[in-house]
Amino acid sequence: MILACFDQTRELELTLHSFLHQDFPRDRYELIVVDDASPDHGARQVVSRARQEFPDARVHYLRQHREDSGEYFSSAAVKNLGSRLARGRYVWFNNAEIVQAGESLSYVLRQHEESAGPLCLRGRVLDLPFEALDGRTQAELDRLHEATDHGRERVATADHAGLASMRRDILLAIGGIDERFDHWGKEDLDLAARLKRVGVTYRYDDEVKSFHISHPPNHVKGPDYQRMCRLLEENNSRGVVEVHRGQLWGELRQRPAHELEGTVVVTTDGDLDDLESRLEALLYGAGADAFEVLVASLDTHRVDVEERLQDRFLAVPYIALAGEEPAADARRVRGRIRTQRAGAWPEHGPDPRARLKPLATLDAELVDWIEHLTRTPEPAGPLL
Question: 231 CB contacts (<8 Å, ≥6 apart)?
Answer without folding.
Answer: 178, 180, 181, 186, 190
